[in-house]
Amino acid sequence: MKRKTGKSGWLIFLFLVLFGLPGRAVYSQAVPDSLFMISLRKELENSKKLCAEPWVSYVGISGSNLTDPPENLPDSVLFRAVKGKNTLVIIHGMGISYSKVKKHYDRVLHWTKEENDPIPYEIIIGVTWPGLELKPSKLSFGVVFLESNPKARRSGKKLAALLDTLSQTAASMDILTHSMGSKVLLEAMKEKRFSVDRLFLMAPSIDAKVFQENRKYGFVSGAVRDEVVVLYSRNDPAFRFFGEKKMGYLGAVSKKPFPEGKFLNWDLSAEVRSHSYWYYETVYVRLAAFLEGKTIHPD
Length: 299
Known about the structure:
This protein is α/β, with parallel strands linked by helices. Helix content is 35%, strand content 18%. The chain contains nine helices and eight strands. It has an eight-stranded mixed sheet with strand order 2-1-4-3-5-6-7-8, with helices on both faces.
């Protein structure tokens, strides 16, 4: 897709081409508080229209001096950046504007850069897709949920090839999703059947039983090398009406036992009482404790 790129955008693009992206150094030195963004939106600010193909940009999140990011970067720039790196991909849920996407991803960026509690990821990649925007009403929630479902499926199918290549290029690839972002991811994995290292699914708005054998996403057990971690809360109001069979309310459920150690359910009911998992410190504390002492990609 051809897109207009501003002068400062071309300067950053030239920097990336000439000097590459040495993992975390990009965030801590060259372009702080910024990340690669894979967009399935026609424009970043457009939460309704799905683009023909995913496109890559390098964007400022908060406090960044990257004010006019280069858009529609060649995919090869992204692939070169992740080559040999321990990578985390994050995918938001439905009903949020681009400004909120950036706020959510800013929380993850700052979590991964905590000096006293370093997280073993060298590069973070955001994904944004057209999940519409919510208004404060139950009717709006219902309408957006129904309209976002097919967009999530289509977004996942379009995203599949890019994630497949990333999974083969990075040293390791974990994926963190929220709400309907889980459907975007799982549809991508279903389309291409690529492998990842770990999945962290926050409040997944999918059926609690879909990881069972012979179910829609039953292949996940074999596609994830390490663990699938489900973060759920029975006090999440998003599942209060017609959502009690969702994974975000019950965790992952199976009639037959899951493979030992493969699926982990974290019940956050006592701590998480809204759908905004991004803003609960307990989420990052638990993730950090889980990752502590574990080598994502052994030397």
